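Figure 2 data, in text form.
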Amino acid sequence: MGLQISFELSKEDLAHLATLMEQAMEKAASASPEAILAGAHEVLTASASVSMPEFMRERQQKLQSLVDMVEDKAWNLPPRERLRVISALAYFVLSDDLIPDHIPGLGFLDDAIMIELVVRELKHELEAYLDFCQFREQQEADQDNPEVSRSSWLAKKREALMGRMNKRRKAGGLGWLKLR
């Protein structure tokens, strides 16, 4: 039997976390997107060998999805959205985050909280990307018609999902953090 623990972040808590994220983005501003992505891969590799609770592991998987979204050539994330995701990844590549990652049992707790907030901020982007991945897997499994090229059906689906993503984001985001 599991135990559910929940807590509420106040406006002040969210402002504090947003400040930490903004500081991370400022520190990472001089870093190339490739360096930030490499740092994200290092964090994911380091966390893979660490024993952590399942809720933290689930957040690490979401972080992996954000990295995958930027690196997936078939998804071809537009520059503006790519910058938003890379900016969000900045927090996770800094060694001086709120709780240092090397502290057993707690090191990735602040990362888990920040990942949850970033995923909420990038909800529409991530949903569209995950739908694209699901569609791609389905199409690859069902590909019977050699007349329809893979790039053609991927391009059509990508265009439709990115349109949906932009429409949903404009309709209303969380607004706790302004990613570039």
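Caption note: The CA atoms of residues 27 and 136 lie 36 Å apart.
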